[in-house]
Amino acid sequence: MKKIHILLGVVFLSLLTSCLKDQEDIFDKPSAQRAEEAIAADYEILAGAEHGWLMKYYPSPYRTYGGYNVFMKFTADGKVTVASDIDYPDATADTAESYYKIVQSAGIVLSFDTFNEIFHLFSTPDPVLGDAGDGWEGDYDFEFISASDEKIVLKGKKSGNYATMVPYQGDNWAEYIEKVNAVEDDMDFPKYTMTIGSTDVDIVKTNRNFEMTYATATTDTTINVPYVVTDEGIEFYEPISINGQEISGFKHVADTYDFPTTSDGSIILNGIVPPINSTLVEGLWACSLSNMGEFGIPFWTAIKEQIMPALGEQLAYFYFGKNGSYWGFTFNSSGYGGVIGFQYELVGDDKVRLVYYPKGNYSNGDWYVKNARFDYMVVPFGCSPELDENGSVVPVVRTFTLTCDNPKSPMWIQLADDDIPNNIITVWDKILDPFND
Predict the structure, then answer these.
(1) What are 346-357's pLDDT values in tens digits?
(2) What is the CATH number that goes with domain 33-171?
């Protein structure tokens, strides 16, 4: 019996050796040589695009922040020049130059291995972009999936997202980015709706990501649809299917609220402009000392000049409105976050009543109200500067009339107190330093 095992083992090894030899014979060159040749070919392809490449790039493993246009011009000696339509307040230049390399690393990999102040915004752990400590979780190493003079397909090593690159046919990157910005502005609405057969779809967006909600036979369904803006409209990362209809994007039509699908135009994305007070309470708006009226300035100044130095902290932001399931003021002071609760009532289309709601305080909200008098900053919105006999903040109902710069997509909304003429507050949809903007 033992001899039989040995003989079977010899036969098996012989067959295995034969198979391995057959596999090796498939290729006429060693794997290292094939990799070197592939790398050399990819360098040549990258450097061969006269006006550079246009990449459609999605950071974040879940594509939370949508897609962006990234222009790249490669040279054969390892330099790359980058431009993008990413909107970042500290950007100092239209283009940025750095180095790249192509290496063998479990496949052929394109690596942006030196810092590029534009491209690495997607992967920098900056709290301004994405989550503090994580940023947008973008890639800087990409595996080549396919490469030709007409198209390159890459896959992010960290995110797993696909990025496509095609040679740019124009000669002016900035002009294309300007067109993209114009298209995005024209197609930007607080809300959207879409009807597919008998199904109504409600849509809101965050960054470049549609949140689509619709009813099925058994339940309500919500899907997230990341997209990139082009000079012709909106293009999804991948097609979606609702009610048996496939949708891959929408065409831009100037000066209208209606945008047809890019396939056959049979489905229309309808932009909706809600009343200004609805836009206010559904958004998250930045507040600052410089945007307070005469009534509110003394209270904010007291926090800036007295409270913050005593705390030894720096107020990073102070937002007003809806933040997930919380409504009121969301703040962060040297890493300590909290919510100061408020309630609202909509009046008509352009008025809102606001009042402090202590039961809505969350996280460090109560502590900063009781120990740092952060209630001073919300006095203009709906509470008294004087405490009651128990040392508690006294809610005061204030009614405001609202105006804005653009009802379709406001950058700012102004709240004018109906009873206190000099209590005029402007809140913004952009990032503000509470005491220096």
Answers:
(1) 999 999 999 999
(2) 2.40.128.280
